[in-house]
Amino acid sequence: MGWKLKAFDELTNIELYNLLKERTLVFVVEQNCPYLEVDGKDPSSYHLFKEDNGEIIAYSRILPAGVSYQEASIGRVFVKKEYRGQGIAEELLKNSLDFIQNELKETNVKIQAQDYLKKFYRSFGFQTISETYLEDNIPHVDMLLQR
């Protein structure tokens, strides 16, 4: 049950299908938030995920600088409900940040975080750089990590 990190064109059809299914389940269904989940940024991104018996249980989308922001970014971060509270989210974010710093050679990371997760992201060094605002009816803040 290890981590996989792939560019878009390295994903198998079934991996792509499963990650889009899980992202939709979390961000559209679980959060009761109708929005365009497939936003056109996946082909330019890296996809970090962990599987358990072929099921994607944790995921983040790593966006190089210039895709969403001037800085590199991390988005679509989730751990499946039944796997939460086991430290997987911390592992996921650490691996995402390591890839950005060591492989993409970026030092600044900008994210759009759900407001209730500010403390989690601050534990990795992110600082809040905006007021709380509604994005798809969910309170968010912009946060920046500078190394």
Key descriptive features of the protein:
alpha+beta; Aminopeptidase; 3 helices; 34% strand; GNAT_dom; acyltransferase activity, transferring groups other than amino-acyl groups; GNAT family N-acetyltransferase
Strand content: 25-35%
CATH architecture: 3-Layer(aba) Sandwich
Beginning-to-end CA distance, first to last residue: 30 Å
Assign the CATH class: Alpha Beta
Please name the fourth-level CATH homologous superfamily.
Gcn5-related N-acetyltransferase (GNAT)
The assigned structural class equals: alpha+beta
Name the helix and strand elements from N-terminus to C-terminus, one letter apiece.
EHEEEHEHEEE
Radius of gyration, in Å, reads 14 Å
Mean pLDDT: 95
Please provide a written account of the structure.
Strands 1, 2, 3, 4, 5, 6, 7 and 8 form an eight-stranded mixed β-sheet that branches. The protein has one domain (3-109): Gcn5-related N-acetyltransferase (GNAT) (Aminopeptidase, 3-Layer(aba) Sandwich), CATH 3.40.630.30. The chain has three helices and eight strands, in the order βαβββαβαβββ. Helix content is 26%, strand content 34%. The chain has helices spanning 13-30, 88-102, 118-122; strands at residues 3-7, 46-52, 55-63, 72-79, 108-114, 127-128, 133-135, 138-146. By secondary structure, the chain is α+β, with helices and mostly antiparallel strands. The longest helix is centred in the N-terminal third of the chain and has 18 residues, at 13-30.
